[in-house]
Specification:
The complex is a heterodimer of chains A (about 170) and B (about 190). Chain A is an all-alpha fold and about 170 residues long. In chain A, about 85% of the residues lie in helices and about 0% in strands. Chain A has 3 domains: about 50 residues, no CATH class; about 35 residues; about 40 residues. Classes of the chains: A mainly alpha (about 170), B mainly alpha (about 190). The interface between A and B is large, with 39 and 48 residues.
Amino acid sequence: MKQVDCEFEAEVLAAVLQSCWPAQVDACLRTHVAACAICSDVVAIAGAIDGAREEMKASAVVPDSGRVWWRAQMCARREAAAAAGRPITAAQMIAFACAVGLLGACFGATSTWFQLALRKISSSVAGLKLQTLLPSTTALIAQHGMLALAAAAVVLLVPAAVYLAMLKD
Amino acid sequence: MFREATFTDVSRERALDDPAAGLVMDEETFRAFYERTARGLWAYLARVTGDHQLADDLLQETFYRFLRAAATHDSEQHRRNSLYRIATNLARDARRRSLVWGPSSVAGDDIERIPSGHDAGNAERTADFTRAMSHLKPRERAILWLAYAEGASHREIADVLGVRATSLKPMLFRARRKLAGLLGRTMGARS
């Protein structure tokens, strides 16, 4: 099995990070590093990473801790308010749906012209025959086939496009 | 490790902590924790994402999510691991959102941020390093940075990245090999 670590790795890393490599280290360790692929890789990258870390930390411009704390508090409050408001919104929607349903039921039960219209529609629907409808529908689709296809494509594609755009944002 | 603010060097930091800090993070505890970790975390995010602007945004988001999680931590090391895990996940999500995440787009950007007083040799070395890092995968960058810049142990890195500790050694080996090869090529080309 291929060796992926070396027992001297930590020692070599320490020497590099303490700027002792290669002058101030034991000759045995230098000989080992020359022969060990793992330790020579550590020598090659550790100094570079440590140098980059020091430079990046020195040049990093991070926001003030107070500002981050304040922003976190604001976000938490906003989220808490939104979470608290969610059941209220749901209850309002249910209440609105119930009210609309109740109004519709009252209207349907009391309005004679509505009941008449409903009866007329149901009788005409019952009188419809599929055999007579089918040829006219086929002719309509044949005449406006492209339009129907375009409409179907729009109906299917627009939600997909909106979803993708929102995903990108 | 012997450097300041590394994962494993926690005894000194623990002494600075409030005794109750592990249970509740009040403003004072947060401020102290932020001062200790923010710069290092920003450097990690900037390296992993390859984008300084994104690192700025993710830094604030990381601390916000860390506070919101309100998790209890039994040690500074545990707390720091949680913070870096959140940051790593956010960086991963940002990469997925951007859909295309090729090699880092900011090769050489580090030079602009180097404080004045740095010599040209340092600037060149940093540019070489940035270019080499930009050819690594984000996960490889994260592994190397956590191991050699933050001084994290294999178990800690595995915990932060959400991988098995046993898988980490070969991953670290491959990433190190790759970066050493890239750095060698860059230096060779220069000389």
